[in-house]
Amino acid sequence: MRLFAAIDIPESIREALIQTVQKLKPTARARWSKPENLHITTKFLGEVPIAKLDAVIAALRAMPAAEPIPIEVRGFGWLPNPKSPRLLYAGIQAPEWLGQLHLRTDQALTPLGVPAETKPYRPHLTIVRLDARLDLSALRQAILHLPAVPFGGFTADRFHLYESLTGGSGSVYRKLAEFPI
Known about the structure:
Shape: globular
Number of helices: 4
Low-confidence stretches: none
Largest sheet: 5 strands, antiparallel
Structural class: alpha+beta
Strand content: 35-45%
Radius of gyration: 17 Å
Order of helices and strands: EHEEHEEHEHEEE
Number of domains: 1
CATH architecture: Alpha-Beta Complex
CATH superfamily: Cyclic phosphodiesterase
Number of strands: 9
């Protein structure tokens, strides 16, 4: 099973992003994220044997509770960098508590054989995955002309464990469990 932990975003933010993405889509033929798939990944687990699913859920349930996390979604950025991007994302602004949730999740799952993350945690909402050969000049210009309006904010008080199912029409995410932050 291909698993990840994530925070869902409210419908109001999803709608604001959809409206903006509709303006950007004509500028680049690329793999745009499905609106229903927008989420803030807190931990990518990767392939996990189905026999370990109950243990993963138990480990996440056993994590100590923390404070809800205020999150604001605003602006766009490029990963890994603006010169040779592989994806365009909507930015996440949140206190360090979000990074602590990622770290606590890492620590809870490492004893189960889930590798700890080696790169710094960079929360984001993936908007589009990009091919290195794609001409991005029209997309870059369109982004420059967007108003600098935040997409919205919310307070996250829970996260979820998802299974990622791949198919011909892209990934479908199935919610397996919910956990308090």
